[in-house]
């Protein structure tokens, strides 16, 4: 339940054997390379340039593999909506990845690029043809060639205009005796017209067009519309046939997808090795390597070095306070899934405490309160089981689902204790379920009690953050900060909380016997804050002034505590929306077995929708309470993830 300890590695090896060592370390997958912390006068610029060229070459080849993967994958059968969110991951062995070096896929790259170019050309031309045919459709009855010439002396313009403009144009042209009009077709509010004129009158006709702001329809063809349309349709038929032929050919190449994924893994592994090689420092005969390994792998690295090198110098030391070691979270199996939630916020600093175990219990409690329905807990559990059976989740995806699986337990418990089963009225529940109800948040003083419970839980949650910080300070030997900052604040907050309880009890005329204890806690805590919160100040005036300001800042805990009331709001919202859905479909149950057949799927659909919507709030808001309210009490992020050199990549999973 902590950040796993690591060792800093400094290594000197023969330069001639360094590449083989990198390969062995990559195969083992437990060593994280770092830039060597010192520099030599001879920086081997030529070597750096060679590595840069090798990296560029690998990236270019990797981009071609990615192109082929995208191109071929686009011809796979369509995946379902949910399945589309899960990227397939190829399981393979180290031996298969390393054997890819002998497999050249240049022909496949070139073929995919050629086919893709041709498909783009075909699709573009098909769009042009469809567009052109749609333009020709109103003119199909026009018998003359579209060149705009009837004879040596007669020409024509084609135009599209509205009916009233058509009449006006006819009047103008006939009045001036410039041309005559032929109505070709009409569609909706548009009129398609051919304007015939003697060629010497062409400029005058164009002026009329300009004055009326009319545009000529121009087709670049010597065929009439009907023949041109037939030619275009014939061309379209040929292109569609060619497209199908190409698609059929591509189907044969789909068998190369796994090979391409292997090539992707191989190239990524080589690229990672080149980048690691760029981090080491080499002289004419030796190479200097620095990095990190788990403390548990300290003996393992010596074993790899003995099997790979003729000679070496190895130094393993604990991280120094000035170092920024990589972080590996180490938790027991139950807490492992909740590491994802910590990573969403940011890994802890190596020197900090791992908040995963503390987050796990309270997140589950808050999640259960936000869902707050035993029926929904059962529905969620069944849904997760079906998803895991139906979809190929990655290891991280399965861990993430476990968070929700664990969340069904507190959701069920809260639902049972509050009598919430699919938003059904409490009176309609069986007697044995009624007997388990401790608090009904929808009746009498239930909502107020539920609110008070959430506020008390929130207050204790904030106190737990201060206790964790105090324990961490004691661990580091910083007892002064633990006692004067965290313990002093806790004493004051407990005293303030008890005084609030005394205030509400005094309204009813009762003053509890322990009120002097509350007063003492409040005064002692306030004194510690005022006197020691700003103890770094050299003057007593600054010390007291800063302390008073810190005491005023304690009021923020009131707002932080109230923010936990959202748990009650989320829990009640789940129940009330479910109750509303039940009212909507209640009339259907009155139609006997026919009504039940209709009502049951609607019932399940509506409650599944309610569950899905409320799951978002039940996940996000408990996380917010941890990230914003709890973590500021003790947590310092900024850690960087331990990322060893390995053959495994995003798309390739190595079999153990």
What does the model show?
The chain has 656 residues and is an alpha+beta fold. The chain has helices at 18-28, 45-73, 94-99, 106-136, 163-176, 202-211, 225-253, 257-279, 298-308, 339-345, 356-371, 374-390, 395-418, 431-434, 446-476, 479-507, 515-532, 540-553, 556-562, 566-585, 592-634; strands spanning 2-3, 6-14, 32-34, 90-92, 154-161, 179-187, 190-198, 281-282, 286-294, 313-317, 326-327, 329-330, 640-641, 652-654. Among the domains are: 147-218, Alpha-Beta Plaits; 336-634, no CATH class. It is built from 21 helices and 14 strands.
Low-confidence stretches: 81-86
Question: What count of helical segments does DSSP give?
Answer: 21
% residues in beta strands: 5-15%
Query: What's the Cα radius of gyration?
Result: 38 Å
Q: Overall mean pLDDT score?
A: 81
Largest sheet: 5 strands, antiparallel
For the record, give the distance between the C-alpha atoms at the N and C termini, rounded to a whole number: 25 Å
Strand element count: 14
Amount of helix: 55-70%
Give the overall shape: extended
